[in-house]
Amino acid sequence: MAYKISEDCAACGTCIDECPVGAISEGDIYSIDPSKCTDCGTCADVCPVEAIAPEA
Length: 56
Prior knowledge:
- 18% of the residues lie in helices and 18% in strands.
- By secondary structure, the chain is of the alpha+beta class.
- The strands form two sheets. Strands 1-4 form a two-stranded antiparallel sheet. Strands 2-3 form a two-stranded antiparallel sheet.
- The longest helix has 5 residues, at 14-18.
- It is globular.
């Protein structure tokens, strides 16, 4: 199950540098490519606004 970034995203860039497989793309709200995401949770651990969570 991939992680997903909510609308609470502040586009700070912290998660991009932490993703080991490059699954996160920049934008007004960042997005995670579910086909690349390995469900490691590193992005969620570093998100300062807690905008990243496992997809329901």
